[in-house]
UniProtKB/TrEMBL annotation, chains A, B:
Residues covered by the CoA-binding domain: 79-180
Annotated organism of origin: Paenibacillus gallinarum
Quaternary structure and interacting proteins, as annotated: Homodimer.
UniProt cross-references to InterPro entries, sorted A to Z: CoA-bd, NAD(P)-bd_dom_sf, Rex_actinobacterial-type, Rex_DNA-bd_C_dom, Tscrpt_rep_Rex, WH-like_DNA-bd_sf, WH_DNA-bd_sf
Official protein name in the record: Redox-sensing transcriptional repressor Rex
HAMAP family in alphabetical order: Rex (MF_01131)
Length: 219, 219
DNA sequence: TAGATTGTTAATCGATTAACAATC
DNA sequence: TAGATTGTTAATCGATTAACAATC
């Protein structure tokens, strides 16, 4: 196959493949079939083959995919074969959690600066990074070649922060605030709104059959 | 329209509608049209009307939707018109961030218990809650009528925790570990894997034109 | 009334899955 | 060779969007 336009659904599955392939690699598994992948990742094998075939002929008929080779290829496709520098804005609990979470360093995503707009936070340390005032965003983005911004501020500040990021030349934003932020079309925005995930989960609960809340006593 | 089977895509948009409607309510806006909603939420107005029409005739032709009424209805549909008790397993940074994040209390989702399997964590306080050992999960779930579980443990523990949750009678799981966890089909699982969001973001970056990494000096 | 906006059908668009020839 | 598995086409399935009669 090789190119067409790649749909977002496909792109979002690539990191999922990558993650599991890396686990296989660690376990010294050298080859994997679309069927095995599908089983493990709850995906249709045909879909996996099709996804990968958009980008090239990575497999071998009768054999499957070479794990190490496919890891390399997916990393290239995702453009994480080089280190990508990331700025985090919002040094609250979630921001701290994210910057402590160093798993993505391995994936060549590196948080290299943390910002906040509250005086109290500025100057404090998060891991090895000093929290900087928002005024320094623009310069730091340029100096440190920061390309992605993560927003972990309260929702009422999220749009303002996004605007600053865009102005500073950031190319893509991961937004944790439960709000739809607006940006020019060349800026890619992903929303990581777990409150949506949580609330929609409730829909799938079995209807109560005479259950009541724990706390307030209706009797 | 009224019922058929409701697709997951529809259900996932309901919390998004709800959130913005609640904001409108706070601002004392009483009525809103699908067009206004669409503009604000980056969605097609026809899609919004269709989504809502699955559940009933909530709007008025020529007028739009009554904000307060629609909030009520969506809360009913999502089954968050009653308090839903939630257990959090994993008292690390992310777990702390989530339990501090009290926004969903307003949405009738309430974290009523926190668990961890590390001795060091057990007995410490997270907000008003004492971290309990995993052994108490089963009993606490029953006693406190906990229906949803949130997993914020490292990936290698996630499946084990999920198994415990299922055994304890939890009905739905929000999983933050970057791994596909398996459970019986009647258990609903949502994955809130922000590393996927972050990595897939890189795909959309403009290709480098002679840029290099910040840190290591190639010259 | 005239203008606005819903609910719903039909048309379009896109994504997933099945099937199979090619080939290791 | 026989068995396995890819890459890809065709078929299916599902979701989004346009259009418009109904009606406030």
């Amino acid at each position: 196959m090789k190119s067409d336009k790649i749909s977002e659904a496909v792109v979002r599955r690539l990191p999922v493949y990558l993650r599991y392939l890396q686990e296989l690699y660690k376990r010294e598994v050298t080859t994997v079939s679309s069927q095995e992948l599908g089983l493990k990742l709850d995906l249709n094998p045909a879909q996996i083959r099709k996804d990968l075939a958009y980008f090239g002929d990575f497999g071998r008929k009768g054999i499957g995919y070479d794990v190490a080779y496919l890891i390399d290829k997916i990393r290239q496709i995702l453009k994480i074969d080089q280190v990508i520098n990331v700025a985090l804005v919002g040094a609250g609990n979630l921001g701290q959690a994210l910057s402590n979470y160093n798993r993505y360093v391995k994936d060549n995503m590196k948080i290299v600066a943390v910002f906040d707009s509250y005086d109290k936070k500025i100057g404090t340390m998060i891991n090895t990074l000093t929290v900087q005032p928002m005024e320094e965003l623009q310069n730091t983005v340029k100096e440190r070649n920061i390309r992605i911004g993560i927003i972990t501020v309260p929702d009422f500040e999220a749009q303002r922060v996004a605007d600053c990021m865009v102005e500073a030349g950031i190319e893509a934003i991961l937004n944790f605030a439960p709000i739809i932020i607006k940006a020019p079309p060349h800026i890619r925005i992903h929303t990581a709104d777990f409150t949506t995930d949580l609330l929609s989960l409730a829909y799938y609960l079995e209807s109560e059959e005479g259950k009541e809340e724990t706390e307030d006593d209706k009797s």
